[in-house]
Amino acid sequence: MDSNQFRDAAASAIDEIVNYYDTIEDRRVVSNVEPGYLKKLLPDAPPQEGESWAEIQKDIESKIMPGLTHWQSPNFMAFFPASSTYPSMLGELYSAAFTAPAFNWICSPAVTELETVVMDWLAKLLNLPDCYLSTTHGGGVIQGSASEAVVTVMVAARDKYLRETTAELSGLELEDAIMHKRSKMVALGSEMAHSSIQKAAQICGVRYRSIPTTRANNFAMTGDAVEKTILECKSQGLEPFFLAATLGTTSTCSVDDFGAIASTVAKHAPPDVPGEIWVHVDAAYAGAALVCPEYQHLTASFQHFHSFEMNMHKWLLTNFDAGCLFVRKRKDLIDALSITPAYLRNEFSESGLVTDYRDWQIPLGRRFRSLKIWFVLRTYGVLGLQAHIRKHVKMGEFFHSLLKSRSDLFEVVTGPSFALTVFNIVPKTQGKEEQDKITKAVYELVNERGEIYITHSVIAGIYVIRVVSANPLAEEKYMKKAFDVLVDTTEELRDGKAS
Ligand code: PLP
């Protein structure tokens, strides 16, 4: 493909993409293809002769589209959203054009320097304490996902803990102590924490304990529960070294009690003392709301914590992937992740004047992801981002009020919290089993019909439905449609009314 062919192909692709977005609400939101559908439609091997773009592009609509679940459809209310916007897509386009695995500063200084600038912008926008800024001892780094971020900081926490608690030892004695300690180290997270925390512990080769929550506390992790678990672990000879707190849990968007957690942790493993517990805040989805002053009180304790992560690609108008990880002490990451063979050495890195982000992450190479964040921050501005969040929060309240207006059919379990409402169906005859059964049946039929797409969860043993109103294209009319679909399906299944 030469430059002229690229210009035509790109114009045609962009036309198709714009048309896709303009008509997306008409598509069935969740794909209903059979597993293995695509293999049947494609040849067994690539073509011998190259094909024209026109030939290739045709297959998008006929072969790929049927197998897409349309996350950008306003009828998609499942999981948490995956934002996509035109400015962000332009960032992806330029990033692809400038492709470079820019692991060291000299590999493309703009890649590193723009990342530092936009991550500092973002830290200020989210009201993170100054210790998370690159101008102090901290800084931000873009990762692929919240899961990748938590593995990265857990590795840093593990190595810091081992280094600091064995500092007096050397030789074989040191090796033995490290082996012994590693077998006793335990990472903690609430039972509502995302599964990525447990997965990180699995990858890091440490134990994991989950901390119970209660409905009375709105499924938030409390200081008391943290204390109880720390004491239990210690009484078993285990060494807690990492705690994940959540701002916006996946099932219910609960917010852990950060203030109480900070004081509890300080009591048992004071910060900046060898053996401290590294506290990571997972704000993958709801962290986006921190752009609004009305949520910024939530960061009040963050100067006592060690790291924070939010995904711009969930609720802040940026295409996947844009996981934004901030650490209070960048040295902790670098100490754990920096290995410099001769071929990675260069005068700029040696000068100590530049950042080499390869030392802040697991992979070596990295994409130019700050471009899309920069484009989004500049296109929407702070006021635009705040309006975006507030619009969705308001729609969550609207949806919640609709559910409340039919309390004969729906029981709200939690929310609306950060545009997520969690509810179940009121059964015809009393009983938890009956309630779980009808809730599951309604949930499954709604998704099978594919007019809207929602997700479920099980919390405290209760089967619940989650509806999120944070899709970039969300509007009240779609929330009302979702409500009508839920009413009709419930009346059909529960009361035998034809819809
Ligand atoms: N943390 C929370 C609270 C989440 O809700 C999710 C996913 O929805 C994750 C972490 C994992 O996100 P990622 O896909 O970026 O790893």
UniProtKB/TrEMBL annotation:
Q: Which Pfam families match?
A: Pyridoxal_deC
A Gene Ontology molecular function term of the record: carboxy-lyase activity
Q: Which metal ions or organic cofactors does this protein require, according to UniProt?
A: pyridoxal 5'-phosphate
Residues carrying N6-(pyridoxal phosphate)lysine: 314
Output the superkingdom of the source species: Eukaryota
Q: Print the keywords alphabetically.
A: Decarboxylase, Lyase, Pyridoxal phosphate
- Which InterPro entries does the protein's record reference? Aromatic_deC, PyrdxlP-dep_de-COase, PyrdxlP-dep_Trfase, PyrdxlP-dep_Trfase_major, PyrdxlP-dep_Trfase_small, Pyridoxal-P_BS
Annotated GO biological process: amino acid metabolic process; carboxylic acid metabolic process
Cellular component per GO, a single term? cytoplasm
Q: Which family does it belong to?
A: Belongs to the group II decarboxylase family.
Q: What is this protein called?
A: Aromatic-L-amino-acid decarboxylase
Species this chain originates from: Coleophoma cylindrospora
